[in-house]
Design goal:
The complex is a heterotrimer. By secondary structure, chain A is mainly α. Chain A has 3 helices and no strands. Chain A starts with a helix and ends in a 13-residue tail after the last helix. In chain B, helix 1 runs antiparallel to helix 2 (28-48) and helix 2 (28-48) runs antiparallel to helix 3 (52-76). Chain B is an all-alpha fold. Chain B is 81% helix and 0% strand. Chain B has 7 helices and no strands. Chains in contact: A-B, B-C.
């Protein structure tokens, strides 16, 4: 039997790693992957609670999170391709034309 | 230690190690590979928590679908330039500190609430119907409207992605 | 002795599982090796040639020779290749192919495990095989492999959709995701799913051919345009791994098709009393094999080989005698029919290769997206609607029984 706090601890560390990667990295694709990492950490917490409350609702949330992640990945990657085509760069520091 | 616990600790260690590799690799393809390992081990933990259906969804959709898309895009865009550029943003010390504070905050919350969770453990009875069936019943009875909305969202995303990625016809 | 061993295994489920895994792995590896031999022989037969004849009697040791050759060849890693990814990619392909067999029921009394998400498990794990192809093609740092990998993965993704939807049709009929339950359901109905879901069956078989990169869908390795496709840069042992993965996948999709649509381990016409004599097919089949081997080897000019063939015939006769014992007969009944059906499927795979010309890439995509997927969707909708109406009016009606609800 794995205590729920263990799973939650893992979830927190994964989320923290995702967040750290998100603000530290410059490459858009890696940043995007860090978002997926955070989403997964949250999914893990949902499932842990669903298991320990004996209620499938948490799993339904995870299902929707995965569906939204799929939609987000499709759109996000299309945007990345468009950016790469127009700017020839993937570094977020170079994408500053909206700055004053 | 039971087999279950050994499996849990092994999968957690794998997930964490590969997550660290995801955010530190210079080459985006390597990041994708390590993210696949992370997602797979998280899926394994889903299995340990008796969420078989979501394990399958995680592997089919995330690992078999979304990550393939990532790999395609990484191969389509030119990586040679990106590998040579600086990998970390200029204020990385500040950013790292923020992330650590965030983690500490969440950890503190869990530590304080940890008594509350252990109580709920007793209700972890083996379910009478299969996990897939339980999820399906909840999805198509209680959450019918969200399912419809999610499918519309997917359709919109699909059309949007095609429009965005298409070259302009000139 | 045997009983003790059995008791020990039942008391230690983990050991039992490991033993079963080892058996399945060993048998599969041997089968795959001889599948290559079978392919060469059948193709030769269809083209009125002899095929491999030199290594061993009738070339029976050819797989061994091929294996030794591949193992001893130089293992080349191209310059500029991504070393680790290049090394690991073939292993991913093989691992994904073999893992799926964990949930395939070879007989009612022999399967590694029966999980309640069996079908989803197969869909999930087989979708991992694509990484072996993409990563291998990318890591080679060469143009042909990259193009081959992109083609191959696009093909796999497209046809996986169609195959998945065909499988959902079966799922609607059998009410379960467990592979064992799906076969048992066909037993209860007294009908194989191929009669209940003919469209799904056709779609699945075509998609299976495409997913295993076999002719007429073998574009990823179209040697006339891409030299060898995604594994152009591979050699020696690692090339052998890709080869192994491809043939294992062939066996796998045959097993799945047999389980889902052709009644798995069930005997043909199990519900027909008059055909019960078919239960004696296993010993009769072995005897037939013995006669065939004897007639084939009797006039062989090499004395050693003549002795070998006659010895083989004797062994087969003895085996037939063993199988004719009622207890043994019951035990091997399921595995016999399963093997026969799978071999028939594998024969068909080779037959396609001898018969059909290769598709062009755009034709392949057109067939996948404009024909297969809409057809699979239509089949799914029709099945769901029928299922809803028939099950709400009581499943006892004759019409409902006919299509299996």
């Amino acid at each position: 039997m794995v205590p729920v706090s263990h799973v939650l601890a893992l979830s927190v560390i994964l989320f923290g790693l995702g967040a750290a990667g998100f603000i530290v990295r410059r490459n858009i694709i890696t940043i995007f992957m860090c978002i997926e990492l955070m989403l997964n950490a949250v999914n893990l917490a949902f499932i842990a609670f669903s298991r320990y409350l004996g209620d499938p609702d948490g799993q339904i949330f995870v299902f929707f999170v995965i569906v939204v992640a799929a939609a987000e990945a499709a759109m996000g990657l299309a945007i990345i391709i468009a950016v790469q085509r127009n700017r020839q760069t993937l570094s977020i520091d170079d994408l500053d034309s909206m700055k004053l | 230690m039971t087999l279950l616990q050994i499996a849990f600790f092994f999968l957690s260690a794998l997930a964490l190690a590969s997550a660290i590799l995801v955010i530190t690799r210079r080459n985006a393809v390597h990041s994708v590979i390590w993210l696949i390992v992370t997602l797979f081990s998280v899926g394994g933990i889903f299995l340990l928590l008796h969420a078989e259906f979501l394990f399958a969804v995680q592997v089919i959709l995330y690992v078999g679908g979304i990550m393939v898309l990532f790999l395609f895009v990484v191969m389509l865009v030119n990586l040679d330039v990106a590998v040579k550029q600086a990998q970390f943003s200029r204020q990385w010390q500040l950013a790292l500190a923020t992330a650590i504070i965030l983690m500490a905050e969440l950890a503190y919350g869990i530590y304080r609430g940890h008594q509350g969770f252990t109580l709920a453990q007793t209700s972890a009875v083996p379910p009478t119907i299969g996990n897939t069936q339980a999820v399906a019943l909840a999805l198509y009875q209680d959450y019918m409207l969200p399912v419809e909305i999610a499918s519309v969202l997917l359709l919109v995303a699909m059309v949007g992605a095609v429009v965005m990625a298409k070259r302009k016809l000139e | 002795m045997a009983e003790h061993a059995l008791q020990f295994l039942q008391a230690n489920p983990l050991t039992y599982a490991v033993v079963k895994i080892l058996i399945v792995f060993a048998v599969l590896s041997g089968l795959v090796a001889y599948l290559v031999y079978m392919e060469r022989k059948v193709l030769a037969f269809m083209q009125a040639r002899l095929g491999p004849m030199r290594v061993g009697p009738w070339g029976l040791l050819q797989p061994v020779a091929d294996g030794i050759k591949l193992l001893l060849k130089e293992d080349i890693i191209p310059e500029g290749a991504d070393r680790w990814v290049f090394l690991i990619a073939p292993a991913i392909s093989v691992a994904a192919a073999f893992t799926c067999f964990a949930v395939v029921p070879f007989a009612g009394n022999f399967f590694v495990t029966d999980v309640n998400i069996g079908l989803l498990f197969i869909l999930a794990v087989s979708s991992l095989g694509i990484y072996g192809i993409i990563l291998g093609g990318w890591a080679s740092n060469s143009h042909y492999p990259l193009l081959g990998a992109l083609r191959s993965s696009a093909q796999l993704v497209s046809y996986e959709v169609a195959a998945g939807m065909a499988i959902v049709g079966v799922l609607l009929v059998s009410n379960s995701l467990s592979m064992v339950e799906i076969v048992k359901r066909q037993q209860e109905m007294g009908l194989w799913n191929v009669l209940v879901q003919p469209v799904a069956c056709i779609i699945y078989v075509i998609a299976a051919v495409a997913e295993t990169n076999r002719n007429p869908f073998d574009l990823p390795e179209a040697e006339s345009e891409l030299t060898a496709g995604f594994h152009t840069e591979y050699s020696g042992f690692r090339f052998a791994l890709y080869f192994l993965a491809e043939y294992t996948n062939m066996v796998l999709v045959s097993c799945i098709a047999v389980t889902l649509f052709f009644g798995g381990w069930l005997r043909p016409f199990q519900s027909v009393r008059a055909l019960d004599f078919l239960n004696y097919m296993p010993p009769v089949g072995l005897l037939g094999g013995a006669v065939f081997v004897f007639l084939l080897g009797r006039h062989n000019r090499v004395p050693m080989e003549r002795v070998f063939f006659i010895g083989l015939a004797v062994v087969l006769v003895l085996l037939a005698g063993l199988v004719a014992i009622p207890v043994v007969l019951n035990a091997v009944q399921g595995i016999f029919w399963f093997t026969v059906k799978v071999l028939a499927f594998l024969y068909a795979f080779i037959w396609y290769r001898a018969t059909f010309p290769r598709y062009r890439y755009d034709q392949l995509m057109n067939v996948g997206w404009r024909v297969m997927i809409p057809l699979a969707l239509a089949n799914l909708i029709v099945t769901a609607v029928l299922r809803y109406f028939l099950s709400s009016h009581g499943s006892a009606s004759p019409a409902a029984r006919l299509i299996g609800f």
